[in-house]
Amino acid sequence: MTPSEKLVVADVSGNVWRLEVGIGDRVCAGDVLIILESMKMEIPVEAPVAGEISRLMIQPEDVVQEGQLLLTIEPQPAGCP
Question: In terms of pTM, does the model score above 0.85?
Answer without folding.
Answer: yes
